[in-house]
């Protein structure tokens, strides 16, 4: 099985060198190979070296799809693969070097700007938001301050979206005492952790250090973390325990001037 995917990787690397991106997007056999490989990458990472060679090609395709609004949403297709690969050093380095984080930021920004109802987040929308957000979170947790400082302007755009997500989900879930909407609990936990990591690794002297935004995020986070004894009784606790405890720890260990 591994050799089969090694062949597909070699095929796509060769395609990248010999075929214009405009033709790649219209070639069903190439698109099928990308889908199959992305599905495998979402579960497997044994060919780390070869995978790292493929990442620039996948990112280039994603850039083209975002820019030209192609019918095939390849970004959505490869997100599970990037989510599984970005915790690994070499694939994460390739992902960062070739502009992967900016793709995730642009994807989230585009999704949020096209969203018609900003008073609610449906289950389908949760899935569209969660993957890119978790990929960015993988990078921030690993790279911390050096990545945030280098990409401060773009990262804070997602913090502002994160605030809106938290304001939508926090009160809604609290009103039901977290008895439903498990996917939304997962999204809220990851959103708050992302925002807290960015806030605590941004200098208070930065022009982007918006105390009003920070105060609102910290307030929602504290309410959410204070209710973890309720969430811990739910099946979803296994999926959010790590992000809740980590977020609480980061918040407790950092004095935030607001």
| Secondary structure tally, helices | 14
Q: Tell me the count of domains.
A: 2
Helix and strand run: HHHHHHHHHHHHHH
Sketch the major β-sheet.
Answer: none
Q: In terms of structural class, how would the helical and strand content be classed?
A: mainly alpha
Give helix % range: over 70%
How would you describe the shape? globular
Number of strands: 0
Please state the average pLDDT score. Answer: 89
What radius of gyration results from the CA coordinates?
Answer: 19 Å
Pfam families: Neurochondrin (PF05536)
Organism: Rhizophagus clarus
Protein name: Neurochondrin
InterPro entries: Neurochondrin (IPR008709)
Describe this structure in words.
- With 258 residues, this protein is mainly α.
- The chain folds into two domains: 1-98; 124-258.
- The chain contains 14 helices and no strands.
- The protein has helices at 2-18, 21-24, 28-41, 48-68, 74-85, 89-97, 100-114, 123-143, 145-150, 152-175, 182-200, 211-226, 228-231, 237-253.
- Helix 1 (2-18) crosses helix 3.
- The radius of gyration is 19 Å and the shape is globular.
- The N and C termini lie far apart (54 Å).
- 35% of the residues are buried.
- The model has no long low-confidence stretch (mean pLDDT 89).
């Amino acid at each position: 099985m591994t050799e089969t995917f090694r062949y597909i990787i070699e095929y796509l690397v060769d395609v990248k060198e010999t075929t214009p991106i405009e033709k790649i997007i219209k070639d069903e056999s190439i698109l099928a190979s990308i889908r199959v490989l992305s599905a495998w990458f979402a579960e497997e990472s044994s060919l780390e070296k070869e995978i790292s060679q493929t990442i620039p090609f996948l990112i280039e395709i994603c850039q083209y799809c975002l820019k030209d609004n192609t019918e095939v949403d390849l970004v959505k297709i490869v997100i599970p693969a990037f989510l599984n690969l970005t915790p690994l050093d070499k694939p994460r380095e390739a992902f960062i070097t070739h502009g992967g984080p900016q793709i995730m930021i642009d994807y989230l920004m585009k999704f949020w700007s096209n969203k018609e109802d900003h008073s609610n987040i449906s289950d389908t929308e949760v899935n569209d938001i969660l993957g890119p957000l978790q990929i960015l979170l993988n990078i921030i947790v690993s790279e911390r301050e050096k990545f945030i400082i280098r990409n401060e302007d773009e990262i804070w755009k997602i913090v502002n979206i994160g605030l809106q997500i938290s304001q939508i989900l926090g009160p809604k879930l609290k009103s039901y005492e977290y008895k439903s909407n498990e996917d939304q609990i997962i999204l809220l936990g990851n959103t708050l952790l992302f925002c807290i990591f960015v806030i605590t690794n941004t200098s208070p002297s930065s022009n982007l250090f918006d105390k009003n935004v920070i105060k609102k995020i910290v307030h929602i986070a504290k309410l959410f973390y204070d209710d973890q004894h309720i969430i811990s009784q739910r099946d979803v606790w296994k999926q959010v325990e790590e992000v809740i405890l980590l977020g609480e720890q980061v918040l407790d260990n950092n004095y935030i001037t607001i």
